[in-house]
Amino acid sequence: MSRPQSMPDFSALLDASTSSSSIFEKRIHSRRQTSPERKSLHLRKKPSISLAAGLMMNTENSAAASTPLNVPLPPSPRQCSQSRVTEQGIAGQEEGGNLFYAYALRSDYASSPPYILTFASAAVCSQWWDLVQHEYKMSSRPSLQFFVVRSEDMELIQDDPAFFHLRNKWFYTSQDSPMSPPIVIPLQSANGVPAVPAPPLAEKKASTSAIDSLAGSLTRLAGVVESNAEQVHALSVAQSAGLQRMQEINESNSTQINAIADSQMKLQALVDQNASHYIALSNQSFASQEQSRQSQDQTRKSQEQTRKSNEQTRDILKTTVFQLQTLSTNQIQLSKTCEDMMRSIESLGNSVSQMNSSLMSDTASNTSGMSAASFSALASRISPAPRKLNRRIKGVWYEYDNTATPSGTPRRRVDSVDTPPKSSIVFKNGLDMSR
């Protein structure tokens, strides 16, 4: 669990117990952060000054005021952590000079701080560089203690099986924290020997004043120990208060989490209920749509039948109208034909009457002494007159003298069997004309 921002100065007390876990977490964190833009998003805000920090600052100020300038103050935990890497490098050089240091610049983020590479020896560095050249072609080595590697390649190298035999002989350190100063590595040759020899240690000068200064130093050290005890007590009080506050915050958070869980359960129940309602409404809507579709199909079929019946009725009406028009036209033509025949028969009757009258006048003038028998015989021969009104005239026999009937053409009556019987004709104006 991360510590609250109101107690930033407890890190020195927690480093002793959580050093291994914090180093592992920092290493993982440095692997995940591959770009400076991403790192800047996860940086913590500047912590506020707590009660313990204020007590420590006041104690340091008072100790600095009461301490002579020639006696150094004990270093703070932060100064100790900053100088830890340099001391380790110097200790490695004193033990045998086997450690080899180098910079690794990030080619994809040139403005970011470089990695610090630490090898067990210069030979391990050479083996490591040979594998990097073979596996990662984009890497380069401009100088003996200067490499150029991509950030993602450095992460892949750490887990690459090809480097498995070197896993305990090298490591890299990221300088991503803006609070820590940049680390300066010592200059070394190709075999790992320091290029600049270490300065000789100054010989201690024994004098009588050293005992007095040692006594004063011990006195000041006792005061510093007492002040440190007071600071530790203040820190313990602040830590207990902070832990109590954290416990209260955790309890309130647990209450809020339980309330949120209950709300989520209620919300889930409402969602389930809404889902069941939605399913029921969907089924009802589907059934209503099915019924509507069936009714629409029936309506469409009935409309189709109605349309067909209307078309049949229209065809029948058209046929009837056409027949009526044809019948009317034929009736008009028939009436005209009858009128023409009546006119022709009337004209024929008039001509026959005129002929009879002319014959009678000629006969009376020429044969005044003709007997009544011959006249009656002549009259009987030409009677009856030809019929009219759509009757076909079979023939008329006119006899002007008492000569015998020609043997070539036998005489026939007009009202013989060949003449059709009388019949009435209905004209357009409703009159019945017959002879």
Q: What's the mean pLDDT score?
A: 72
Structural class: alpha+beta
Give me the strand/helix succession.
HHHHHHEEHEEHEHHEE
Amino-to-carboxy terminus distance: 139 Å
**Coarse shape:** rod-shaped
The number of helical elements comes to 10
Biased composition (Polar residues): 286-297
Region (Disordered): 24-43, 286-314, 403-435
Biased composition (Basic and acidic residues): 298-314
Question: Describe it for me?
Answer:
- It contains ten helices and seven strands.
- With 435 residues, it is α+β, with helices and mostly antiparallel strands.
- The protein has a domain at 92-195.
- The model is unreliable at 1-14, 16-22, 31-56, 59-96 and 425-435 (pLDDT under 50).
- The strands form two sheets. A five-stranded mixed beta sheet has the order 3-4-1-2-5. A two-stranded antiparallel sheet has the order 6-7.
- Helix 4 (51-66) runs antiparallel to helix 9 (209-366).
- Residues 286-297 have a biased composition (Polar residues).
